[in-house]
Amino acid sequence: MSRTFKTEAVVLRTIRYGEADRILHLYTREYGRLGAIAKGVRKPRSRFGGRLEPFFRLALVLHRSRGDLHTVTSAETIEGYPQLRASGHGIAAAADACGGVLRLLDGVEEPNQPAYNLLCRYLELVDADPEGPVASGAGMVAFRLKLALAAGFAPELSGCARCGETDHMTAFSGAAGGVVCPTCEAGSFPFSEEAHTFMVQSLGRPIAEVPAASQAAIRQAGRAIGETLEHHAQVRLPRPEERLAA
Questions:
Q1: Do both 59 and 111 map to the same domain?
Q2: Are residues 35 and 113 in the same domain?
Q3: How far apart are CA 155 and CA 85, in angstroms?
Q4: What is the Cβ-side half-sphere exposure of residue 92, based on CA atoms within 13 angstroms?
């Protein structure tokens, strides 16, 4: 069996290693999360050039290792998303999306086509308009919600996550994993109808169509997703406003 294989991937994160190497955290179309090492990539005359950087979408050839890090033997750029790199908002949005994939799908070495397609589409939209709604806090929250759905951790929004009641959903419980009614609201936080509508519309629309909502509603929705992932996926993500302020 050949130890060389091809894959398409987005570079989520890179770490300098040794004098000239770089470790890559990748999300691949065919294999899910993979780690790789690019040897000599930081040398001035590296054959890889500057393409082994975060947010690049690449066609890779990797040499399979018995350990956790495969070796990059070839890399061709599919998309470099240059416009988002020139914008603070674009970089923050791309970093938030890649960070979410890195944490939520960490260690999952199996393909998740919806998650991969979502990430590529999001980077494409941010690159097209780095200062637009997709790169805003609302867009980041909408992306996280869709990513949670792709990973199997979408919150319950159609009725009380504890008793199934469908009326008067005025609170959200991360521990319960969704909206809750007044009878079951112990340990929850207040959750507005606007925040609920934002989350429902975010799930029902393409990522290019970010629903309009107030900052208060977006913060509530972000908190709802964050607490759900903390309780059920054991993953903590920074708040979108922290990314935009960085």
A1: no
A2: no
A3: 32
A4: 23
Nearest CA among 93, 87, 24, 27 for reference residue 53 = 24
pLDDT at 210: 97
Structural domain count, the chain: 2
- One domain for residues 56 and 129: no
**Which region holds residue 122: left if phi is over 0, alpha if psi is between -120 and 50, else beta?**
alpha
- Taking the complete model, does pTM exceed 0.90, yes or no? yes
Within 10 Å of residue 66's Cβ, how many Cβ atoms? 5
In the chain, which stretches have pLDDT less than 70?
1-2, 240-246
| DSSP labels, 109-164 | -S--HHHHHHHHHHHHHHHH-TTSGGGSHHHHHHHHHHHHHHHT-PPB-SS-TTT-
DSSP symbols for 213-233: --HHHHHHHHHHHHHHHHHHT
- Rounded to whole angstroms, how far apart are CA atoms 4 and 62? 6
Give the DSSP H or E segment for 197: helix 193-204
Q: Which of 199, 149, 142 lies closest to 172 in space, CA to CA?
A: 199
Q: Which neighbouring-strand residues pair with 76?
A: 59
Out of 80, 107, 134, a domain closes at 80
**pLDDT one-digit tens code per residue, 224-234:** 999 999 999 99
Q: What domain range is 56 assigned to?
A: 4-80
Maximum CA extent, the chain? 66
